[in-house]
Amino acid sequence: MEKQSTETPKKRTGTSSVSFMNRIGGVILAPDATFPEIITEGTGFWEPLLLLVLLFAIQGAVQASFAYRVFSAFASALSPMTSGFITGSWFSIVVLSMIVATIVGVLIFWVIIAGIAHLCAKYVFRGEGSFVDLMKLYGYSFLPYGLVILGTVIFGMSWTLWPISVFLSIVATFWIVVLMAVAVKHNYKIDAGKAFISSFVGPMTVWLIVIGIFWVWILLMIRSLTGGLV
Amino acid sequence: MTTARVVVGEIFVAIFVLGLLYAALSPILQPITFPQAQTSWVTGQGEIERYTLTKGANVPQNVNFVDLNITMRTGGIFINFSDEPNLAFDASFTHRTDAAQLAANYGVSDQTLQVNAYGEAGGLNITLGNSCQYNGSFTVKVGGVLMKLDQYSNVSKLAVLISYAGGAVIDVNSEASFQQLDFQINAGGLQLNIDADRLRRSGTINANFSIGGLSTGVQVDTVQVGVSLNAAVDIGGLNINDGDFVGDITTTQCSVKTDGYSVAAEKLDIKANVGLGGVTLQRSLLSIPGFNG
User: Is B275 exposed, middle or buried (0-12, 13-18, 19+ CB in 10 A)?
Assistant: First the structure.
């Protein structure tokens, strides 16, 4: 009788920084192999959380610094009219708010899209997997967002390089969608098609429904305000 | 494969670091600039127009020197100084409704503001600030120039030219600061009222007259301010009537100084050349009614 071997990923050794780099590189280069490793190794929840916060904090900081430069230039240009009353330092609170709002926004987004994918994969497609593990994998799935940071830096260095920035943003978006589908596939052990529906089509459908409800509400508001004329 | 994964991981971490560094340094290393909006420096219509140049408003904050080139065809120029640190130049021009407006412009080069103005007929009341050093010339074809130099004044060199006929009245008060004042008057007089316990720097007043004369009233603390008068009259006379002054006096020339001139803290040297006319020196002169001292 042939002995059936179950292939379990080997636990990697080395310093924590090397294993961290290894995970990041693995998610980028070989997500099909790396995501099961992350689940099996029991990587902590804090690492993807911090990674996600770091990614969007850096992007928020880059955007805020760009906004600060523009605002300072406006403040300087308008100083003859404002007698120098408004300065770039006034914008510090806006800069801080932008970074905090970006981080809070993405954390909420993270929970919602993971929640929709979890509901879809587990209850529609009968997959097996935990919501917390999916959250972890989704945290790593945002790694290509580094390309958006790079694109923003390039755009900030020279406005004429905006096509590169747009290209990197598009690549990052598609890459994140693919990584999320791979994450759902491995976390719930369902096929790629169902995983894609759970990770992308499901959240998009919910999004479209929310937007549709919003516009219907707006339409009803306008109708009530205009006495049914519109 | 592991090495490749680590390398890619390091590349992504490097992107994070790059983003952080760029966010921190770009406002310093790569500031954005827009053309500065300009506020109009002219207000008022009809009989009075006002021209104001203020640091941080319509001229840069780093302006430290002002060159004035002011010409009036007929009328008067009144100059005084204020304690406003941001004021570079303020002028109100009063004229008849049917008379031409002041033709004025200005420009800034490095730290120097250049103001040019030409008026046909009217009164030009100029107020200057206390944080700039002023140079330039005031030309009046027919009319007068009144100037008050006080503790807010900071003049390097100013020239007053009365092309045809007219006069000038100059008040020098305590803590005034000027280096050189030049007067060229064709037909008319210069009244010099020096009433100062202290001057912030030594200065020189040069006056040349074709027809007319210099009338000087001096009321100073001679320990702090040493005053000298060197005058020559071609046709006419001199009248030196101030006990504080000693020196050589003839009917057409004088070279007199206050007691202790050589050891005085600051010195004021007056040099006058008169063609047809006279020079008088006395302790004090009456103030000019209507001149806002």
Answer: middle
Q: How far apart are the first and last CA of chain A?
A: 77
Point out the residue among B16, B31, B35 whose CB comes nearest to the CB of A69.
B31
- The answer as to whether A7 is a domain residue is no
**What is the pTM assigned to this prediction?**
0.55
Instruction: Report the distance separating Cα A18 and Cα B13, nearest Å.
Output: 12
CB interface of B with A, residues 30-49, below 8 Å: 30-39
CA distance B84 to A51: 55
Indicate if ipTM > 0.85: no
pLDDT tens digits for range B239-268: 998 888 999 999 999 999 999 999 999 999
Q: Give the whole-angstrom CA distance, residue B194 versus residue B231.
A: 17
Average pLDDT score over residue span A54-74? 86
Burial of A1 (0-12, 13-18, 19+ CB in 10 A): exposed
- Please identify among residues 251-270 of chain B the ones whose CB lies closer than 8 Å to any CB of chain A: none
Count Cβ atoms below 10 Å from residue A52 Cβ, excluding itself.
23
Tens digits of per-residue pLDDT, B32-62? 777 766 667 777 766 788 899 988 778 888 8
For residue A230, being part of any structural domain is answered with no
Whether A2 maps to a domain, the answer reads: no
Nearest-angstrom CA–CA distance, B34 and A70: 9
Question: What is the full DSSP assignment across B27-95?
Answer: HHHS----PPP---SEE--TTEEEEEEEBTTTB-TT--EEEEEEEEEEEEEEEEE-S-TTEEEEEEEE-
Which amino acid is residue B265, in one-letter code? A
Q: Is B266 helix (H, G, I), strand (E, B) or coil?
A: strand
Could you give the number of structural domains in chain A?
Answer: 1
Return the percent helix, strand and coil in chain B, to nearest 5: 10, 60, 30
Residues 6+ apart with CB under 8 A from A66: A152, A155, A156, B26
For residue range B110-146, list pLDDT tens digits in order. Answer: 889 999 999 999 999 999 999 999 999 999 999 999 9
Distance, in angstroms, between B84 CA and closest chain A CA? 14
Q: How does pLDDT run across A13-26, given as a tens digit for each residue?
A: 446 666 888 888 99
Between chains, do B24 and A66 touch, taking CB under 8 Å as contact? Answer: no
Name the residue among B161, B165, B91, B155 with its Cα closest to residue B126: B91
CB contact under 8 A, A152 and B7: no
**Over residues A184-203, mean pLDDT:** 92
pLDDT at residue A88 greater than cutoff 70: no
Structural domain boundaries enclosing A152: 19-225
